[in-house]
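Box 3.1 A note on notation
Throughout this textbook, protein chains are presented in two layers. The first layer is the amino acid sequence; the second is a token string describing backbone geometry. Keep the layers aligned when reading.
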Amino acid sequence: MAHSHQVENTSHMQNSSDDVSYLIDPLNDAQRQAVCAPPVNLLVLAGAGSGKTRVLIHRIAWLMQVERVSPHGILAVTFTNKAATEMRARLHNLVGVSGSRMWVGTFHGLAHKLLRIHWQDAGLLEGFQILDSDDQLRLLRNVMKELNLDEKQWPPKQAQWQINQYKDEGWRVQDIAVNNDRYTQVMCDIYLNYQARCEKSGLLDFAELLLRSFELLRDKPPILTHYRQRFAHILVDEFQDTNSIQYQWLRLLAGDRARCFAVGDDDQAIYGWRGAKVTNLHNFQQDFQDTQLLRLEQNYRSTATILEAANALIQNNSGRLGKHLWTTGNEGTPIGLYTAYNEYDEARFVVERIQGWAADGGHYRECAVLYRSNAQSRVLESELVQAKIPYRVYGGLRFFERQEIKDALGYLRLLANNNDDSAFERVINTPTRGIGDRSVESVREVARRGGLSLWQAASRVIVAGDMSSRAANALRRFLELILQLRQQTAQLPLHELTEHVLEHSGLRAFYKQKKGEREQMRVENLEELISATKQYQDDSFLLDGMTPLQAFLSNTALDTGEESKEISEQCVQLMTLHSAKGLEFPLVFLCGLEEKLFPHQMALQDNNGLEEERRLCYVGITRAMRQLYLTHAEVRRLHGTENYTRSSRFIQEIPAELIEPIRLRSVAVSQPVFTPPPIATSAPSAASNTFILGERVLHPKFGEGIVLAQEGQGAAQRIQVNFKGLGTKWLVLTYANLQKCENSDK
């Protein structure tokens, strides 16, 4: 198949005009083959660092320039808004076509666009709003409270995860088999009541966007027919990360007519825990007729040594579609392997190597420290602080997730949709205006009884006179405030509307009156929000029937589902391996390569889990461009428990000739960067150096062993001991608590 495909491609390219050479000249042979393929269903296995983004963009340009496909007939799906924005910009630069003429976006973004256009057919309110994760959790808490469920027994976050999982599988409550299972029954009760609240308030969570848009296409044949006729070409990035409902959505939309161009890598499928199914990539060839398979294996990122390590590791996974990364670049230096005594020793080693990198002219931003668990960052951060090295930890709050910004957005959302219960609850007493929890609970109760939104219920409570005049007046003033803000800002540009709301809601003054640097930053963030609304430009909302305010709120809600990938200019980057996907760094440390940590103990229960952990390690290795270090500790305190560990199987799966074990010979430490534990009086001090080669020693955990070597000095002095039944271990003498065996001189 591959041979005939190449012949077909060559013929196809020869018939192309010379004026499109700029589309194919920058490409290697495999990339060119993918870009210039005839209009068929095509699965492109794109290895790490193989230039898949370029291939996707050039493929779209090729379809327009050579195949004469209208931009109107192209649908391109990415997994982040940033990637979609970049794709539109690069297409505009490449072929001069405005991104607004094509549907280019994330699954959630495209589903949102579809529902805005067909809101009536989808059974939605015209002004529906998107519920982000935090507000979804807030709403679920209220629902569970109404159902008299104890949060300790039924954690709201667990319910949130479960409901999202149901939706990701395409299931409504009636599709779920309860089978007299108490847990499933409770989850279904929560799901049913939560969904009713969302429908009443005109709110859609992220998972609902996808499920509702799928149901729209499935249940409305004329709409499905329209979009099947329109989108003759569908291109999908990161196909291995699709979940069940996304795959169903694509298959339904494509039908038998559209040609799909799917780019993915089964070796980088690491999001199974959030519903992604690598089997979608494997099933593509069966589910899409006459699919042709191509591989992008030339890597432009890493050294040959790093790539050989990655190849050797991932070959231990079964059922792969298969590929082998290679490069024409340098062989590079061996992969460094450091065996630390504990997590402090490990962190100190990382810091020393970063200092050496900087001393040789490197930049801190070029260094990344990757780990399996967020809990590992604490000790690493401590050592970096001691060394006065700037760093950034991924996973911090993004701009639109900050408290003051969500407060401001709450007011804007309530202006756009009075029936947004989540926004109502967030701002009803922020800033404080004399509306206490008792008043809010009274409003909730009326809403429950009457099937009303909180806004409607508040109006009814005031008229009924069921609360004190003081409370009723406070509630009335709040409703009047929102109505006045809406009237006063109806004709204002978006940024002026935002500034007016911040000023007249009292929110800006509320944060200004608070003292301290942190509160001052909140005020600055509110000013930045005004700047964001001023800079916001997206003409596509006009086509979708949205006001500028509705478009901005939808955009920010979709944005909060993504993790920022911006690299700080002068900081070492600390992040989990999951966060590192899609990034690259000249210097990378993979820390904590120990059994039950990486691979994680939860993944060892079945082979699928272990294979996903191996793919995660593969992703970590292929983030490195020039230098890679692997580290593990013999003793690690994590989550309050000290454990003696075994090195990860992933280390053993890398060929020994690619690895260089690191021995610290001399480390200058002017001040200890941590306080060592007290040493047993019977043990020699680190400075006394009283152990001799061949001497028998006793370790409190490892038992009896024989001294093989010593190296280093001061706080970094280490001793190599061969323990019976355990093999050779390097121990930091300060911690080791070694004792000489009796009669050891005999």
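The longest strand covers residues 624-633. Residues 1-17, 665-689 have pLDDT under 50 and may be disordered.
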